[in-house]
Amino acid sequence: MQTAAAVADFRTYPKTCDLADVQVLNDHIRVEWADGRISPFHHPWLRDNCPCAECVYSVTREQVLEIVDVDENLSAIAARIDQGFLSVEWSGGHRSQYDPGWLRAHAYDDASRHERHAKKPKPQLWNHTLKLPVFDYAAVMEDPNALLQWLLALRDVGLTQIRGVPTEPGSLALVAKRIAFIRESNFGVLFNVQSKADADSNAYTAFNLPLHSDLPTRELQPGLQFLHCLVNEADGGESIFVDGFAIANVLRAEDPEAFDALCEIPVEFRNKDRHSDYRRLAPIIALDASGDVAEIRMANFLRGPFDAPVEQMPLLYRAYRRFIAMTREARFRLVRRLNPGELWCFDNRRTLHARNAFDPASGARHFQGCYIDRDELLSRILVLQR
Length: 386
Ligand code: OGA
Ligand code: ZN
Ligand code: ZN
Description:
Blueprint: E1 19-24, E2 28-33, E3 38-42, H1 43-48, E4 56-57, E5 62-63, E6 76-82, E7 85-90, E8 95-98, H2 100-106, H3 110-119, E9 134-136, H4 137-142, H5 144-156, E10 159-163, H6 171-176, E11 191-193, E12 209-212, E13 224-232, E14 235-236, E15 239-243, H7 244-254, H8 256-264, E16 267-272, E17 277-282, E18 285-287, E19 293-296, H9 313-327, E20 334-336, E21 342-347, E22 351-355, E23 358-359, E24 365-372, H10 374-385
Parallel strand pairs: 9-10
Antiparallel strand pairs: 1-2, 2-3, 4-5, 6-7, 7-8, 10-21, 11-24, 12-22, 13-21, 13-24, 14-23, 15-20, 15-22, 16-17, 18-19
The structure holds N-oxalylglycine and zinc ion (2 copies).
One zinc ion binds next to loops.
């Protein structure tokens, strides 16, 4: 039996529109809203989403009901509007009450689905003219709203800078933990980017690093990467960024054959040292379920030999050269020198990063870096928005 009208969630759903009329029809309940929108809700859908204390455990707000345990021929016997809520009585005796804010937010008529789709955050593509989103360390550490603004910029722009960070080694972890725990890798919880004699990656030399994503050698590339400057006294070593999604979209428009090749032909990325041997075979561009560009996987210095069918090899080289040539075009590139106390934080699966070669004889250069998965960013945003 229904005890309290609740939603199976920790957030609330403000009422955006009143229920105007409800009618029980053959296989669904027809809801008419005060603004005239009609939302059909099929009987099994409503029964499946009953939020009562029998169907959803109030502590976890997770479902305990499995729809397969409800009679397949279940139907609504009666439905009415009760103090603004939709109230339903089912064959078999169960009763359900639905919050109008929740119901409207989950309605699946065409208009509601289009509205939801239109509200989904979309990447704001950028090029060399980007007005870099810059945030202040003290604000991000203390003010939940400043934190949220930073995280939204990370999600939507994919490149941000924070200034005023202490230059003691390890300070980076304090900033990262404003989002969540750090994703450790074989390079450590925090990795030190310094020119080293026994480098286990080209990153730890003074060479230039061409535009790349980090850990393309892993099944899941880290979602966020941080690079914090402790010391930067060497000549050279400027940071360079491009929006990989913007480049992929231009490639898609200008050279669809090359674009398709990068979406379809898997390429192997490798990273090995004396203790580890990571390999991942995957295409350079990944699309999401809607066909939009969702991820770039690229690091020339971590790439294995191409292994593609004979007839595809010339196309793969043409497409690969074209993509890299585009990452070198000035129109896409943002070039900045990072100063001590500043850090980059960017979407590692979208924004490719690079550095110019530096001269270690001219002075010291020490950056620290770390990774956080994208799930943690999105979760923190939703919790801050509750
Ligand atoms: C890296 C890297 C950039 C830099 O370590 O993966 O990209 O500026 N470093 O040193
Ligand atoms: Zn129930
Ligand atoms: Zn890198």
